[in-house]
Hints:
heterodimer; A: alpha/beta; 5-stranded parallel beta sheet; globular; B: 5-stranded parallel beta sheet; 4 helices; 5 strands; 22% strand
Amino acid sequence: MKYGILVNEGPYQHQAADTAYQFCKAAIDRGHEVFRVFFYHDGVNNGTRFAVPPQDDRNITVRWTELAQANNIDLVICIAAAQRRGILDEGEAKRQGKDGNNIAPGFRISGLGQLIEAGIQCDRLLVFGD
Amino acid sequence: MSMLHTVNKSPFERNTLKSCIGHALPDSAILLIEDGVIAAVRGTAHEGTMRDAMNGRKVYVLGPDLMARGLSTDQVIDGIEVVNYEGFVELTEKHDKVQAWV
C-alpha cells in the first residue's frame, strides 16, 4: 500500500516526529511504500541540518534523511511555514537575500499542493501532531 | 471498511478522547498512542469513559508508548488490545481511513 504522512510538530518538543518515523519504518518493514512525508507548521524544524543534539540522543533530522535515502521517500517542507521559521534551501536563501541555507539532505521545500497530491495519490494519509 | 481513530493526548490533559468517542461509529477502531495511552490504564477516573468506548468498538493501545511511560501491559483495562508499531500499520491496512484526534 502507498502511505502519505503529515508531521505537524517540531522535533524534541512532542513525540509526533518520533511516532511518524517509527510508523514509517514499520510500514516499510511490512512491504509498504511511504510515498511522501509532508512537514507543516513547526514540523518544518525537522528539516534543518544545523541542529546538534547530544551524541547519546537520537538525531531526528539525520534519521529522516537516512530513511528517505534508503527507501526513496519524498521529504517535503511547507514553504510558507519554512519561511516563517527560517528554514531555507539555496534557491530560497538567494531569493530572500539571506546569507546561507540550512536545509538537510533529502528534504525539499515546496507548497501545500504536495500535501493534497499525497492525499489523492496515497491509499492512506496519516497525521501526526497538532 | 471502517475508520481508525488515533488519540494522542491523555484524557487528563485534553478532551479529545471524549470527542473521538462521540464521533466514532460502532464498527470503527480507536488506537491510543503517545500520552493517549494513559486512558488505557485500569483504575483511573476515565476507566468508565473507556469502557463506554469499548461498547461495540475495538480499542487498541500502542505498547512501546506504555513502556516509555513506565506503564506495563498488566495495568491495561481488560479488552483493550496492546499492539506494537507493526500492529499499528496492520490497523491502517484494515481500516480504509485514519482520523487523528490531537
